[in-house]
Amino acid sequence: MKKEMLIPRAAIEKRVRELALQISRDYGGRELIVVGVLKGAFIFLADLIRALEIPCRVDFARLASYGSGSISSGQVAVTKDIELSVEDKDVLVVEDIVDTGVTLSFLMEKLREKAPRSLKVCTFLDKKSRRKVPIEADYVGFAIEDGFVVGYGLDFDERARFLPDVYVITE
Ligand code: 5GP
Hints:
Layout: E1 3-7, H1 9-26, E2 32-38, H2 42-51, E3 56-66, E4 75-80, E5 90-98, H3 102-112, E6 118-126, E7 139-143, E8 149-150, E9 166-169
Parallel strand pairs: 2-3, 2-5, 5-6, 6-7
Antiparallel strand pairs: 1-9, 3-4, 8-9
Helix pairs in contact: 1-2
């Protein structure tokens, strides 16, 4: 696996602090329920919530998308639902990356059925040019070009999640 560094850890740290500040201001002291999407978002979520200046509770969801390899077929299922009640609560979904938007739009639909007071999305990375479903994140760490990225929680066949910087696979 050949890779090139795309986003160094210092830039990630700085951007995470900026996002946390913006989120803290936007929610004006209200408590958030942060829903992390497993597995890819766990590192971003851990850094983001520690930089927040408002209280939060944390839960996780896991989704499976059926399709060949890295191509989403549009068939998504919840394999682990959230456990906290989000009815009438402010919910912020934390994603690793929005690509076609298929996974996120499915999760948003499922969460909307639970009647939260508000529902927003914060994604670490956004591949806008690949979108198949019209969905926009409310908070975006970095907008990136097409290409397969790893590190900072994002994997390639369960490898490379632990890397503190983000890389793009070149071969
Ligand atoms: P979508 O449904 O938006 O097409 O896909 C979202 C999911 O696909 C992400 O949560 C992530 O698991 C995976 N994904 C999409 N692009 C990449 C990428 O460049 N690198 C990695 N590691 N995963 C990706």
